[in-house]
Design a protein that fits this description.
The protein has about 110 residues and is an all-alpha fold. Helices cover about 60% and strands about 0% of the residues. It contains four helices and no strands. Helix 1 (about 10-25) crosses helix 2 (about 30-50). The termini are far apart. The relative contact order is 0.05.
């Protein structure tokens, strides 16, 4: 297989560190960098494959949400009396009927 030369630029300290690690691994710098890059690519591809289904679900949800009506942007009006009673009942369940701010004399 034909080889291709790739030139990289890095700080002198980085270059020396890479040389030392390559030497400890018993490899020349080129082989060491190829090994490191190949390992990183394999790790990234494995992670991408493991999360592909989740990524697809997220993408589908984003598409669905984009087509949803903009309810959150709609102006909010006053609550009806029935809605007020439902909110009060829900708050009573969470905080108790004798909570501060509860309407006196109103049953949930």
């Amino acid at each position: 297989m034909a080889k291709t030369r790739i030139s990289i630029s890095l700080e002198q300290e980085q270059a020396e560190r890479i040389r030392r690690h390559a030497e400890r691994a018993g490899l020349d710098v080129s082989a060491y960098l190829v090994h490191a890059a190949t390992r990183q690519m394999a790790e990234t591809e494995t992670i991408e494959a493991q999360f592909a289904a989740v990524d697809a679900l997220i993408a589908a949800a984003e598409v669905e949400a984009a087509g949803a009506p903009p309810e959150a942007d709609a102006p909010v009006g006053e609550l009806t009396e029935q809605e007020r009673r439902e909110v009060e009942a829900a708050l009573d369940l969470v905080y108790g009927a004798d909570r501060p701010g509860a309407r006196p004399g109103e049953a949930a």
